[in-house]
Design a protein that fits this description.
It is built from 1 helix and 7 strands, in the order E-E-E-H-E-E-E-E. The chain is mainly beta. The protein has a single domain (4-123), classed as Quinone Oxidoreductase, Chain A, domain 1. The strands form 2 sheets. It has a 5-stranded antiparallel sheet with strand order 6-3-4-5-7, with no helix packed on it. Strand 4 (77-83) and strand 5 form a beta hairpin.
Length: 132
């Protein structure tokens, strides 16, 4: 039996603000990391306002790809490294949210260094300032 995990897919484009009916929670095969990839288990992800633009297909002049029905949702996420070239157990930030497990390239992961008291603070939007 293949291990599975849950992920959220866009079921249909929203007309106005998204509702639960636009999304589907599905079971999928647990991804396996390829060369240079890490297996990361999500602990937190960001529901960001720009996701609505991507879901609605209004992506002209936007640096992110549109989401089409059937696509898994993405966005900033914090996760724990389970396998791959990065140290097991390290927390990383990357863009493959809205799923339990992801396999980003190690180079796309930002290692969290413990500078903030709660890792979730890395998901906050806005400028980062250095304490003086």
């Amino acid at each position: 039996m293949n291990p599975t995990h849950r992920l959220v897919r866009l079921d249909r484009r929203p007309d106005g603000l998204p509702t639960p009916g636009e999304f589907t929670l599905v079971q999928a095969s647990l991804p396996r990391p390829g060369d240079g990839q890490v297996l990361v288990r999500n602990t937190h992800f960001l529901v960001f306002p720009g996701l609505r633009t991507l879901m609605g297909g209004e992506t002209r002049d936007v640096p992110l790809p549109p989401l089409r029905p059937g696509d898994p949702l993405f966005g900033p996420a914090i996760g724990e490294v389970f396998d791959g070239p990065l140290e097991k157990g390290r927390l990383v930030l990357r863009l493959q949210g809205w799923r339990e497990y992801a396999t980003p390239d190690a180079a796309e992961c930002r290692l969290l260094d413990g500078a903030l008291p709660d890792p979730v603070a890395h998901l906050a939007q806005g400028l980062r300032r250095t304490a003086r």
